[in-house]
Amino acid sequence: MNKIPEILSPAGEPESLEAAVDFGCDAVYIGAQSFGMRAGPKNFDMRQLADAVQYAHNGGAKVYLTCNTVPTNDEADDYPRFISEVTETGIDAAIIADIGVMAMTKKYAPKLDIHMSTQVGIMNHATANELYRLGAKRIVLAREVSVAEIAKLRKKIPDDLDIEVFVHGAMCVSFSGRCLLPKYLTGRDANRGACAQPCRWKYHLIEDTRPGESYDITEDERGTYILNAKDLCMIEHLGDLIEAGVTSLKIEGRAKSAYYTAVTANAYKKALGYALKGEIVPESIVSEVYKVSHRPYCTGFFYEHSDAEQYYPDSGYFREYDFVGTVDGWENGMLNITQRGYFRADDTLEILPPKGEPAELRLTGIINSSGENTEVANHAMEKLKLPCPAEFPARSILRKKK
């Protein structure tokens, strides 16, 4: 019998980690100050990493540390000290993309589970079995592997070798994230965590003898952003991945907000419950992934290649809801909140409690931090009170439809 898959959430900083755990993930993947493939997020220093592990473990979640850059010679010299130090924080696994890093991890952190990153480009059982022989506990498959190929691979690898796949979030136009374009255009190396996403830019063609005359690079009537990948969304297809033998369902987004992390963890955890019973995921759960910032969704390469087509009119995000606050507590008919976005005293908000269902809140007023009635909430991080007859727990999310 297949294992019950875990929901694996991203966290670029402590607030996102806490949100992921509070809203139902089974594990989080995070980065330290070095050796991780996301240089943009704040990431975690050693003290924050230890606190994060404790918070996650207290909430029943595991922590996987990204060690998936390809190090230089000098960085390789520093890695033994680094991996020995981070192991002391209690992390559950290291995500690795380099064979040398894998070997050093086995030597200097022998009790730590090793997960081989999607950057390795694992497409077949031969590669999977060799990595298992070298000590891998889990393989994160290349994003280009179909559901049918996953099922074939599962039958030809050991039962105790986990399979992890990305199920949601941004996709890279290059094979499994191996891209040189940012390095050429901006000097920022995508393979060392500093991608500038030039694939999202709009390009024109200039003929050498006609300087100043630019032409759109047009594939067809659908648009000119020929490198611009859609976002992946498999929330309605988790049953297929379970049947294929996937162990871990991974959400992309370590550079994204705590709101994104909370909503996606909550939605995918609920969807998984329905998929495990062989039931259709309700529209109320599917709709949650449309309430975070996203590009047009597709199912990537899991089914027909045509669904992964890159061509659409622009590189912008869709955002149907604004994140406007978090609940600190409830007392005597009043919600105590921390304001995060603009709203008005006569707005209708939606409250999403941790591991719960969204509920509507029609506002009848706002009390500011000075105890005065106000018509607008427009000071980020201000402590406010909102009349609310029903009790909601701390860390619940407040959002407003745009």
> How does the helix and strand content classify structurally?
alpha/beta
The largest pleated sheet is described as: 8 strands, parallel, barrel
Strand percent estimate: 15-25%
Global mean pLDDT: 89
Count helical runs: 10
How far apart are the termini?
45 Å
Q: How many strands appear in the DSSP assignment?
A: 22
Number of separate domains: 2
- Per the CATH scheme, the topology name of the largest domain is TIM Barrel
CATH architecture of the largest domain: Alpha-Beta Barrel
Structure in words:
- This protein is α/β, with parallel strands linked by helices and 402 residues long.
- The protein folds into 2 domains: 6-175 and 228-308, TIM Barrel, CATH 3.20.20; 321-401, Elongation Factor Tu (Ef-tu), domain 3.
- Helix content is 25%, strand content 24%.
- It has 10 helices and 22 strands.
- It has helices at residues 14-22, 46-58, 73-87, 99-108, 125-134, 147-155, 181-186, 238-244, 258-276, 283-286; strands at 6-10, 27-31, 62-67, 93-96, 113-116, 138-140, 162-170, 204-206, 214-216, 231-233, 248-251, 297-298, 321-331, 334-339, 343-344, 348-352, 359-362, 366-367, 373-374, 376-377, 383-387, 397-401.
- The strands form 5 sheets. The chain has an 8-stranded parallel beta barrel with strand order 1-2-3-4-5-6-7-11, surrounded by 5 helices. The chain has a 6-stranded antiparallel sheet with strand order 17-16-22-13-14-21, with no helix packed on it.
- A hairpin with a 6-residue loop joins strand 16 and strand 17.
- The longest helix has 19 residues, at 258-276.
- The chain is globular.
- The model has no long low-confidence stretch (mean pLDDT 89).
